[in-house]
Amino acid sequence: LQECKIQNSSREYCKIFAAEARAVPDFGAVPEIIPLYLIYRPANNIPYATMEEDLGGPCEQYCVTERDGSLVARGTSEIVLKCCAFQHWVYQWTNRNILVTDMEGVGWKMTNVRIATNLKGYQGLKESCFPSLLEQFAAAHQCNHYCSILGLKTLELAKPKGSKSPSMGRKSAQSSPQLQK
Predict the structure, then answer these.
(1) Where does this protein have compositionally biased stretches of type Polar residues (predicted)?
(2) Distances (CA, A) of 47 to 76, 138, 155
């Protein structure tokens, strides 16, 4: 159930990101996080399972959390750079409270996403979920071309500023902090 909540919540962020990225001239293709469904099988000795679309090939890791806890982007392909820009966007969009930490998939279709958050109770999590990754991301992320054309701010290591609305400090009433006219 938790995996479904995390992947499907990340999917919703990705849909908003995709809409904004498509508004930027020449941004091109955007990652898509596929839905993960929870199914109930009462006659089975394991009554719950997850189900998702067959991606049609072996998954490639684009952005992952290593065993030592570090975040790593696997390469410099367009997909990897756009996944990194998506991570930056979510981090900024949620006022440094949520980070999509793992993204793998086939082509532009992503699965097996994970999150880091310092929000207690986010998606039913009883405790914070890897909050140290939020600080590490701010310190280690290197903005790329896609971060730049989306107008994302360069990250500086700082504590989250509380529960301010994402719309605070925007110059216009846009849906996210990135696209300022």
Answers:
(1) 172-181
(2) 41, 40, 44
Note whether residue 142 is domain-resident: yes
Residue 157 above 70 pLDDT? no
Q: Is residue 161 part of a domain?
A: no
155: in domain: no
* Domain harbouring 9, CATH code: 3.20.200.10
Q: What is the pLDDT of residues 71-102, one digit of tens each?
A: 889 999 999 999 999 999 999 999 999 999 99
Q: How many CA atoms lie within 13 A of 129 on its CB side?
A: 21
Q: Which pLDDT score is estimated for 126?
A: 56
* Inside any domain, residue 170: no
Q: Return phi, psi of residue 87, to 5°.
A: -60, -45
- Helix, strand, coil % over all residues of the chain, rounded to 5: 30, 20, 50
Give residue-wise pLDDT tens across range 136-150: 899 889 999 999 999
- The stretch 99-123 carries a mean pLDDT of 88
